[in-house]
Amino acid sequence: MELKDRVALITGSGRGIGRAIAHLFAKEGAAVFLTARTQRELSATAEEVSKTGGRVGFAAADLTQEAECAHVVAACREKFGSVDILVNNAGHYGPVVPVEGYPLAEFDKVISIHLRAAFLLSKLVLPEMYARKSGVILNMSSLSAKAAYSWGSAYAAAKAGMLGLTRVTAAEGARKGVRVNAICPGPVTETQMSKELGAVLAKKMGVSAEEQLAEFLNGLLQGRAQTAEEIARAALFLCSDQSSAITGQSINVDGGVAFY
Ligand SMILES: NC(=O)c1ccc[n+]([C@@H]2O[C@H](COP(=O)([O-])OP(=O)(O)OC[C@H]3O[C@@H](n4cnc5c(N)ncnc54)[C@H](OP(=O)(O)O)[C@@H]3O)[C@@H](O)[C@H]2O)c1
Predict the structure, then answer these.
(1) 17, 140, 183, 231: which to mutate for ligand 1, most atoms within 8 A of CB?
(2) Do the beta carbons of residue 8 and residue 33 sit within 8 Å?
(3) Nearest CA owner, ligand 1 atom 2
(4) Which residues contact 110 (CB under 8 A, 6 or more apart)?
(5) I want to staple 107 with a disulfide (CB 3.0 to 4.6 A). Which of 143, 154, 237, 248 is the partner?
(6) 49-78 as b/e: b if 16+ CB within 10 A
(7) Where are the alpha helices (DSSP H) in 9-144?
């Protein structure tokens, strides 16, 4: 078991990639603490994890709110005693519009859930990790941080910002026992966010959702989507001691699109 006796706080874990990470981490021996806004999805995921013998807790929270970030960290500590691993995965894409038409309030919301929440949660868990001289933070970035796709300026900026946050936090934590890395997934087409985005893009481009997806996937070396399970396996590697000398990095799990 790669994560025996660790406590992992995983954001955005009611569905999609976060849910897959929760399942895999629990299978590998971690106690997993789930959070997102939708209570129903959190309790369903918690029940699944629990049924397979995993240790699990959850708290509903809107992570764009500073006080709710603090509540989640406190609830995880209350349930399991510590936060050994933090996975900043919660997110939403936001409007699919060009820069000149992008509403400022929506821009702020997208930055808040990706970049600002990752910053706030890191701030909350780092003192404990430094005191213990061990800990891992994983930030879920995106291929969008490294490529250029129209109509997603806030999302791309937030995800690129998360790579900067990853490197600086890694620099500060490297000699205090804390590693910080990021994953840049390509299209994980099974998730709600990806399906909703695909539908909007297809409509804007005047093609069917199938045509839009086929064209996009054709641009990947492997020519196929990634699965949430494949992202979870990369997350397990980066959060376990298997990657003990890796910090400040972003790993592309995109089927071969970005090469830096
Ligand atoms: N799918 C892809 O192709 C892809 C590619 C690259 C990167 N990513 C990244 O992977 C991460 C997971 O995305 P996904 O594809 O798994 O999407 P998803 O299925 O829509 O999951 C997003 C999760 O984030 C939570 N969330 C959203 N806003 C929140 C808020 N304000 N406070 C707390 N939780 C919030 C959602 O729950 P609630 O709505 O209940 O709050 C949900 O659990 C995101 O950071 C995304 O940007 C995805």
Answers:
(1) 17
(2) yes
(3) 188
(4) 92, 93, 94, 154, 155, 158
(5) 154
(6) beeeebbbbbbbbebbeeebbeebbebbbe
(7) 16-27, 39-51, 66-80, 104-111, 117-132
Name the DSSP class of 220: S
Task: Say how many Å lie between the CA of residue 18 and the centre of ligand 1.
Answer: 7
Q: Which atom of ligand 1 is nearest to the CA of 113?
A: 31
CA atoms within 13 A on the CB side of 141: 32
Identify the residue whose C-alpha is closest to ligand 1 atom 30. Answer: 62
Quick one: which of 138, 191, 186, 188 has its CA closest to 163?
Answer: 138
Whether the CB of 185 sits within 6 Å of ligand 1: yes
For residue 260, indicate whether it is catalytic. Answer: no
Strand extents, DSSP E, the chain: 7-11, 31-36, 55-60, 85-88, 135-140, 178-185, 250-253
211-258 residue pLDDT tens = 999 999 999 999 999 999 999 999 999 999 999 999 999 999 999 999
- Percentage helix, strand, coil for the chain under 3-state DSSP, each rounded to 5: 55, 15, 30
Nearest partner of 193 among 18, 68, 9, 58, judged by Cα = 18
Residues 6+ apart with CB under 8 A from 221: 255, 256, 257
Contact (Cβ atoms closer than 8 angstroms) between residue 24 and residue 49 = no
Output phi, psi for 247, to 5 deg: -150, 150
Question: Which domains, and CATH codes, for the chain?
Answer: 7-188+227-253 (3.40.50.720)
Cα of 131 vs centre of ligand 1, distance in Å, is 31
What pLDDT digit, counting tens, does each position of 191-210 carry?
999 999 999 999 999 999 99
